[in-house]
Give the backbone structure.
Amino acid sequence: MAAPGENLRIDGHRLWDSLMEMAKIGPGIAGGNNRQTLTDEDAEGRRLFQKWCEAEGLTVAVDQMGTMFARREGTDPDALPVYVGSHLDTQPTGGKYDGVLGVLGGLEVIRTLNRLGIKTRHPIVVTNWTNEEGTRFAPAMLASGVFAGVIDQDWAYAREDAKGLRFGDELARIGFKGDEPVGNRPMKAFFELHIEQGPILEEEGKDIGVVTHGQGLRWIQCTVTGKESHTGSTPMRMRRNAGRGLAQITELVHEIAMKHQPNAVGAIGHIDVYPNSRNIIPGRVVFTIDFRSHILPTLEAMAAELMERAPKICEGLGLGFESEIVGQFDPPAFDGACVKAIREAAERLGYSHMDIVSGAGHDACWINRVAPTAMVMCPCVDGLSHNEAEEITPEWAEKGANVLFHAVVETAEIVE
């Protein structure tokens, strides 16, 4: 297939303006965004994306998980579509680029093709996957997981947020519960542009990360149970403090991850303490351990050690311990041909680049199971993400989108 000429570039200013316009929806309190999945803000962002897509002549469809598919037709009605995209939902204190760059970068591919009058043999579909972040409704990458057949749709509909609201009900409430069955979309390939969410590219002075593998993860939700009692009048020897269990398991998680350096990470990010009162010893703590590695035996060994040692820690403190895996996927290796298309696009455009392993989970990790998939990454300042201070430069965004454009259009095959 013919590669696009190196002079073909997206409009970086137009892409940046779109990013800033989307960031006005669901503003955070410190310069970022709070546009959590299936909230009114998420619905507003979806409607803006749909408006932009329809203005480019795209046909927008929505499946039963709320994922949006905006299609630009190809010249061959029988050719498999090339998919591109990411997600528009954010963390409660999220940045303006995580996920959004991939969706609007995909839209910019279409805008550029339209402005240049370029046709492709294969259709191109820009995608907004529902609930990638997994903050309001666990687990992460929920819709793409259902699409790939690794998560049951009814189970997904039954997920509840902290207020007891169900995913399926909220999807219907915001008006994005589509009729299309989930997963009935054969793909020629799927490409996802994303900020790195780590410091490596910036530290190495590279424009582009060519993602060869993703990290697998295990999210282990733990409940430590003690006994609520008065902090002032309960003797130390008679306390059953669930907070002590949390503290010692926190150190255990760090110890386990450090054993497997440099190929593993681990931390406790989400914690709920009950009753969370200044003068009551915690009677129950619920928290989630996040283990990640791109090496499957390492990932499994970390989870196994945690499950062996944490109950013994709690038993020694007179505490109860229960656990449940609430999110998991094995480390994916991305498609060689798609990875090659991204690498060659960066070289064709004269951008510095390096192979990289994605430290975060992405929708591409699930879609990789059902279609040839690859990711392209651009740097972010200080590697900071899932934070309102998340920042990238317009130049980084433009270069990442240019590589995306070349990889997608080459795969979709320009019609001369």
In short: The first strand starts at residue 59 and ends at 62. The chain has a mean pLDDT of 97. DSSP finds twelve helices and 16 strands in the chain. The CA atoms of residues 230 and 280 lie 5 Å apart.
